[in-house]
Amino acid sequence: MKTAASVFSPIVLPILLAGCAKDAAPPEAPPLANYKPDYRQGMYTYSMYCSRCHDTGAGGAPMLDDVDEWESRGILWPALMQDHVRDGFLHMPSMGQTGLSEQNIADAIYFMTVKIEAGK
Questions:
Q1: Which residue from 30, 58, 37 is spatially nearest to 112, judged by alpha carbons?
Q2: Residues 1-46: tens digit of each pLDDT
């Protein structure tokens, strides 16, 4: 007499082992819920990827020192800013395609937020 384990083993075992395959997708990055942004890393990321437009206003980008412009854009919504940086918005290119990690993006947003708040 066949047991349930012997009937399902040929079906279940390969499915379970498929997760161990070499080509399995890497695990997703941990959520940023407990991540403490790094101001210095944010300053570096900003200077390398963001300053070209946000220091000059190129392409209609709000300038970092224009507090009024940021006020109207909802500086209190870092998650929205994170999406805009990662996916692109209006004339801003997608920084998610540049190899920046979610942490790099969070650091740059933190740096920008601190600078904007200091200008008030």
A1: 37
A2: 555 445 444 544 344 444 444 444 444 444 556 778 899 999 999 9
b/e burial code for range 27-54 (CB count within 10 A of at least 16 → b): eeeeebeeeebbeebbbebbeebbeebb
CA distances from 94 to 3, 25, 85, 88, 89 (A): 55, 23, 6, 4, 8
CA atoms within 13 A on the CB side of 12: 6
Cα–Cα separations (whole angstroms), residue 30 to 8, 25, 72, 78? 34, 15, 31, 18
pLDDT of the residue at 16: 42
DSSP state letters, 42-92: HHHHIIIIIHHHHTTTGGGPPPTT-HHHHHHTTTT-HHHHHHHHHH-BTTB
The mean per-residue pLDDT over the stretch 77-86 comes to: 80
- Amino acid symbol at 65: D
- At residue 91, the pLDDT reads 84
Looking at residue 10, the DSSP 8-state letter turns out to be H
